[in-house]
Amino acid sequence: MPTTATRDALLQRLADSGLRSTPQREVVYNVLLDQRDHPTAEEVFARVKPDLPTISLATVYNCLETLVQCHLVRAVNFERSPTRYCPNLRPHAHFHDEQTGRTFDIDLPEGVLSQVNSVLPCGFDASSVEITFRGLASGAPSASTSGTSAAVPAGRTAEPPRSPATAQG
């Protein structure tokens, strides 16, 4: 359930962009905040439909585009896959599990983005950096635990490590 502060932030960002709040934008934004699992537009559409039965997929796409343009969510793209949407605006990386298709936020240690920027040649100035890891997330929380993808601290596993006896079996 969205808080008053969250709603106020949405209203302010929209107003700053010369836009107004609509029930569709609010519901789409709340869906992204309620279940932070990097859904596609089609997944957002399915989640919004019970609250707004007459909403169209085109309207969901338009709402998502507005939220991205207002810097309320990030569009996350993986090669040849549908765009996913992330409401986590803190600097972080993503881990894309190639087996399950799930995406996880990975907290970055302080200073990592500065170090990455420092490798750029003289005269290059990056406006943004996106770090995406791909592979298998064997230590990830199961989808049934909370339905969300919580941020995983850098250098830590999402679950306690298995003992050598169980890791091989």
Describe the structure in your own words:
With 169 residues, this protein is of the alpha+beta class. The chain has 2 domains: 4-76, Orthogonal Bundle (Arc Repressor Mutant, subunit A); 90-168, Dna Ligase, domain 1, CATH 3.30.1490. The protein contains 7 helices and 5 strands. The protein has helices spanning 4-16, 23-34, 41-48, 57-69, 112-117, 143-146, 164-168; strands at 74-76, 84-86, 92-97, 103-107, 132-135. A hairpin with a 7-residue loop joins strand 1 and strand 2 (84-86). Helix 3 (41-48) crosses helix 4 (57-69). The chain starts with a helix and ends with a helix.
Short description:
The protein has 169 residues and is an alpha+beta fold. The chain has helices at residues 4-16, 23-34, 41-48, 57-69, 112-117, 143-146, 164-168; strands at 74-76, 84-86, 92-97, 103-107, 132-135.
